[in-house]
Amino acid sequence: MKELLKFLSNLKENNNREWFQENKERYQSVKLKHEDFVGKIISGVSSFDSNIPLLKPSECVFRIYRDVRFSKNKDPYKTAFGAVFSKGGRKSKYAGYYLHIEPGNSFVGGGIWRPESEALKSIRYEIYNFPEDFIKIIEDTEFADRFGKISGEKLKNPPKDFPADFKHIDILKYKSFTVGQSFTNEQILSKEFLMELMKTFQTMKPFIGFLNRGIEG
């Protein structure tokens, strides 16, 4: 993990194709180490969440190459390694667990970010129909201590098809349903990181399960 953080720090300072090509072997080396770590995470998550199959690391890891076609930022490479663990892998429509490794900005997340309109509507209906179930999850002491509140953009007005006087209408205004916990470089490099990562994901499990319950109808 130390080599991975060092590589990403160097890449941030030299985000150009020339430097990347000169350091392609370094990239391939840290990429393999990252995928090995991701494989351990897949095994761990699958052991406590039966909805997560034994995926290949390549089905979970995001590419380092940026799509710059519609971006003002023309840097060709991402300066973080990311991986998502969900039913169907990173291209899945389902909520899942997320790992983001970036020097000084690493975090573990979970939930669903900007879901398609049909999935978002289904999640909102699940919360509307079973508010007590959802509130119990997000107000659980361990959950709240680790993640605080749900993060993400919200609508200014109540979403269409839902009554404005619904007790938890503010929750239904979310466009995404995600939570996260930050980790320092020191924590990432510690021997206990994988174990702490699993604890964090286990705390997320009821939240992710509820979201997927909504998506699956």
Query: Helicity range of the residues?
Result: 40-55%
Please tell me the CATH architecture by its name.
2-Layer Sandwich
Strand order of the largest sheet: 1-2-3-4
Mean pLDDT: 95
The CATH topology: BirA Bifunctional Protein, domain 2
Major β-sheet, in short? 4 strands, antiparallel
Determine the N-to-C terminus distance.
40 Å
- As a whole number of angstroms, the C-alpha radius of gyration is 19 Å
Portion in strands:
5-15%
H/E element sequence: HHHEEEHHHHEHH
Strand tally is 4
Which CATH first-tier class would you pick? Alpha Beta
User: How does the overall form come out from the CA principal axes?
Assistant: globular
**Quaternary form:** single chain
Number of helices: 9
- Unreliable spans are none
Instruction: Return the domain count.
Output: 1
Structural class assignment:
alpha+beta
How is the secondary structure organized here?
Layout: H1 2-13, H2 17-22, H3 24-48, E1 81-86, E2 96-101, E3 106-112, H4 117-129, H5 131-138, H6 141-147, H7 169-172, E4 177-183, H8 185-189, H9 193-216
Antiparallel strand pairs: 1-2, 2-3, 3-4
Helix pairs in contact: 3-9, 4-5, 4-9
